From TrEMBL:
Keyword annotations of the record: DNA damage, DNA repair, DNA replication, DNA synthesis, DNA-binding, DNA-directed DNA polymerase, Lyase, Nucleotidyltransferase, Nucleus, Transferase
GO molecular function: DNA binding; DNA-directed DNA polymerase activity; lyase activity; metal ion binding
Role description: DNA polymerase that functions in several pathways of DNA repair. Involved in base excision repair (BER) responsible for repair of lesions that give rise to abasic (AP) sites in DNA. Also contributes to DNA double-strand break repair by non-homologous end joining and homologous recombination. Has both template-dependent and template-independent (terminal transferase) DNA polymerase activities. Has also a 5'-deoxyribose-5-phosphate lyase (dRP lyase) activity.
Top-level EC class: transferase
Catalytic activity: DNA(n) + a 2'-deoxyribonucleoside 5'-triphosphate = DNA(n+1) + diphosphate
Enzyme active site: 356
Chain intervals with Low complexity compositional bias: 244-255
A GO BP annotation: double-strand break repair via nonhomologous end joining
Top-level taxonomy: Eukaryota, Metazoa, Ecdysozoa, Tardigrada, Eutardigrada
Residue ranges of every copy of the BRCT domain listed in the record: 59-168
Protein name in the entry: DNA polymerase
Cofactor(s) needed: Mn(2+)
Amino acid sequence: MKKAKLHNGGNIPKSSTGSRSDPRLSNPGKCVGVSKLPEISCTKPKIPSGNSTTASPSGDNFFLRGVIISIIPERVPKARVDLLRKRIGERGGGIVTFHPQGALDETVTHYVVDDSVDAEEALRVFLMKQPDLEALSETLSNVQCLPCKWISGSLMSRTRLDEGGFFLHRQLLDLITRKMTASRKLDCTPPKSAFALFSLAVLATPFACTPKSEPSSMLSVNAGTGGDGSGIKRKWESIAEHASSGYEDSGGAESSDSDEEDSDVDEEFLARVQPGHMPFAAKFVCSYPSSSGRKNVNGHITDQLEKLQNTYKSTGQDFRAMAYGKAIGTVRNAPRITKIEDIKGLRGIGSGIKSKIIEILETGACEKVAAYCMDNEMNKAIELFCGIHGVSSKTALKWASSNLRTLEELPEKVRLNRVQQIGLKHYHDFLERIPRSEVVEIESTVKEAALRLQDGLELITCGSYRRGKPTCGDVDILVTHPDGKSHRNIFAPLLDSLRSSGFITDDLLVADEGSQKKFLGVCLLPNPGAKHRRLDIIVVPYSEFGCALLYFTGSAHFNRSMRSLAHKANMALSHHSLNKNAVRVGKKKVSDGEPLPGMITEKAIFDYLGLKYLEPADRDH
DNA sequence: GAACAGACTAT
DNA sequence: ATAGTC
DNA sequence: GTTC
Ligand SMILES: O=c1ccn([C@H]2C[C@H](O)[C@@H](COP(=O)(O)OP(=O)(O)OP(=O)(O)O)O2)c(=O)[nH]1
Ligand SMILES: [Mg+2]
């Protein structure tokens, strides 16, 4: 099942970690800073000449004369916004509050966004105000969209810095033209603005304020419906639902450099600290059984945090979403939180989430949730599209940004790849979870076909089924053979057999090569009213059985935790093997190390890592 | 400021 | 290289 | 967003 995919790319939140006690994101008032600087806050000097780069001579105390700035508050700490407002006013600039909903204010000459905001993210915000790409490009071509460091630098140097020295604006314009070109292809609408051609010509070189691969977002702000609704199970959801305490890093104990290249140091070390625990294992959730059964006494808090987590996930801010997942896990397992001191010492809760919890404690809700996770068209469309197998945050956002809103219009208006076509075809079936009894039927069907082909094959249904969940998102079947070789020639024949019986209806992915074979696809039981179900089959050599079983049983969060732990111990754990002496420089692997022999059971792997064995049901983190 | 799991396919 | 999935 |  898909669910919590984590594509690469780090989300770089940069600033914003401040101690802001939650910004009042949307102020109904038109002018910002009313309380502090009434005299300037509503000034709107006439626009000088759009985006001219006329820098005032230094020494001019009012070098921002004629400039009307709108600060997009998302991710800029409130304290910083307040300070900027004040300083801008002092230098003769005007300020207009940024309203997520209303139309773009025509008088604004400069939009300022947090330094960590990239072009894609900025576009998303502007699209909420002006959904029409062409109109937007028209408007934006007459203003500047700049990172925060432009205004801070200007204030610092008492000079209006040359806007041309910042790439964000050009990147934004370029992004818009690319999108217009793309949607024109779809609509067969002819190009319009000459500006589009121009900006193509000035494509900027990525730099400084350039996207870091994850467009972190700042969808907008708007008080109002704290929407959530949606009965559909989002794919990006539940990335770490049951985390016990965050699986991260070790505390003090750092081994790192020092040699110990020698083969046996590892074993000796482990043997010494054995039976049991690496000195740093304490901070990894894979050291503890998952909290099955215990009830969450902080539901009022985790509910709010989950909304933020889901929104971050759906907008591609995976690391931020993951951080929320860890925080949610610790809050869920903590005793009832009623006061600020109760938060102290909880792992995964830093200043940002702490302030939100405090707000929930005091007011019963969190403004950021209402503002950010709002139930608007855009968010609903993104959520809808993310429900398609083969579609995730990037694609969903792209489609929603080009004003697509329903499943029906997709086939005609965008180019769906093969997988997405299948995903769309079974959209509703795939959203349903599978009762265990039906998993058993599917398992039996596959098992019978397999055993007809080869005696002695072992089939184990893994995933959430093996962890004992009452319903499953899909069926994950591992196939191996204890003789170490009879697994080899059964993969394709097995699939052929299941296809010809009509059981397998679609292939999503067939991976033939490599020691492990993998099938991701769709099956259908020959029962009246049966639904199409996602079926994953892997065929593995017996030598990799332990690692493969461990992997395929999960949970995903548990796996990540255990792999982190292995990594910390200079090992590397994958679905193939547990390697020792794995060497990495940063996150780049220099040497895979050597696979450890004998890791043919899950127990052996737990042991080698110094972990207490956990039953599958206790790995449901 | 780097890391946050690790491996795989499709495009 | 990016997007998506397990 | 959090940790080291
Ligand atoms: O990002 C991932 C996703 C999955 N897995 C492993 C663990 C997981 O248990 C197994 C099967 O994946 P699936 O997506 O089916 O998860 P599940 O645990 O079976 O849950 P669901 O009930 O949604 O199928 O593959 C990972 O290691 N990383
Ligand atoms: Mg599954």
